[in-house]
From TrEMBL:
Entry GO terms, CC: ATAC complex; nucleus; SAGA complex
Protein's UniProt keywords contain Nucleus: yes
Organism for this UniProt entry: Anopheles merus
Domain SGF29 C-terminal: 166-307
Protein name: SGF29 C-terminal domain-containing protein
Subcellular location: Nucleus
Keywords: Nucleus, Transcription, Transcription regulation
Database matches in Pfam families: SGF29_Tudor
């Protein structure tokens, strides 16, 4: 289970990916999206109805809580406990509806992404201007599903600072950090999109996300770092954030390259970003002024031990 952030709100949702056994035609994709939109509209109406119904109980809890500061009678305490129990059940019901709605939203996103990958594989890759690309990367980070754990629930891999499992294979369309070598022989970590993983060679094919480069790279798994699939909620799962002072790799703002940086400040809310200091010898202390980078683009530093392509 995980949460999804939508229009500034953060909720739990199922992270199971949309599974397609056959490529979708444009018409099939449209019909599936329409079906989910209809279900989503119904769920949104149910959520609003449930929320309005719960308001009465919440108002009663607030009123009796205020009264209890003066009235310590057992009868009032018993009534308060009853209202709290009702409120808890109401919240569980509302949360369940929200999870269902957000699962529909994620389904729609997965269907659209599947169509985009199909178009790319068919040679119909769209050209995106650099300014638009930067905006898309920002939106992608802001709308990354948000994980909010239940008490005792284990934080999954690829949530915040939690790395991928050692056996994990990134899927086509996933964003990764890729260590590539330029024509001059210089190695850089770039933002890339997975085209495919070839199990017979244990290598990835990835595309440079920067349209100006138009490069495809074939790289071993050790040269690939999957990016987080979920954000960690600082208010409930702070242990899934990099501690202050940690050396990381972070995407430098308005670029598609990762550089070493130090965590200067952690996000305090679900919508905030890390404040980092990039290594930069042009500054007297060797670090850039504080810059903000989203959780999606902050990953553990990876030591290169005889990396091979």
């Amino acid at each position: 289970m995980a949460t999804f952030a939508c229009e500034g709100y953060c909720f739990r949702k199922v992270t199971k990916q949309h599974s397609l056994t056959m490529p979708l035609t444009a018409e099939q994709a449209m019909l599936q999206v329409q079906e989910r939109l209809k279900s989503l509209k119904t769920l949104v109406c149910e959520i609003e109805t449930e929320r309005k119904r719960n308001e009465t109980n919440i108002n009663n809890v607030m009123r009796l809580t205020k009264m209890s500061s003066e009235d310590k009678s057992p009868a009032l305490n018993h009534k308060l406990k009853t209202l709290y129990k009702v409120g808890l059940q109401d919240a569980i019901q509302e949360e369940a509806l929200i999870r269902q709605a957000l699962a529909k939203i994620q389904d729609i996103r997965n269907i659209r992404n599947e169509r985009r990958i199909q178009a790319r594989n068919a040679g119909n890759k769209e050209t995106i201007r650099r300014g638009a690309l930067m905006k898309m990367l920002q939106i992608s980070a802001q709308t990354l599903p948000l994980f909010v754990s239940k008490p005792g629930e284990k934080i999954p891999h690829l949530c915040g600072s939690i790395p991928a499992d050692s056996s994990y294979i990134a899927k086509p369309g996933d964003m990764v950090a890729a260590l590539v070598k330029s024509e001059e022989g210089e190695e850089n970590w770039i933002l890339a999109e997975v085209v495919q993983y070839v199990s017979s060679t244990s290598k990835y094919e990835v595309d440079d996300i920067d349209e100006e480069q138009k490069d495809r790279h074939v790289l071993s798994r050790r040269r690939i770092v999957p990016l987080p699939l979920m954000r960690a909620n600082p208010e409930t799962d702070g242990q899934a954030l990099f501690p202050k002072g940690t050396t990381v790799m972070a995407l430098y703002p308005q670029t598609t390259c990762f550089y070493k940086a130090i965590i200067n400040q952690l996000p305090q809310t679900a919508n905030e970003e890390y404040e980092v200091l990039f290594e930069d010898p042009t500054y007297p202390d060797g670090y850039s002024p504080p810059l903000f980078v989203a959780q999606r683009y902050v990953i553990a530093i990876k030591q290169n031990k005889k990396t091979t392509s």
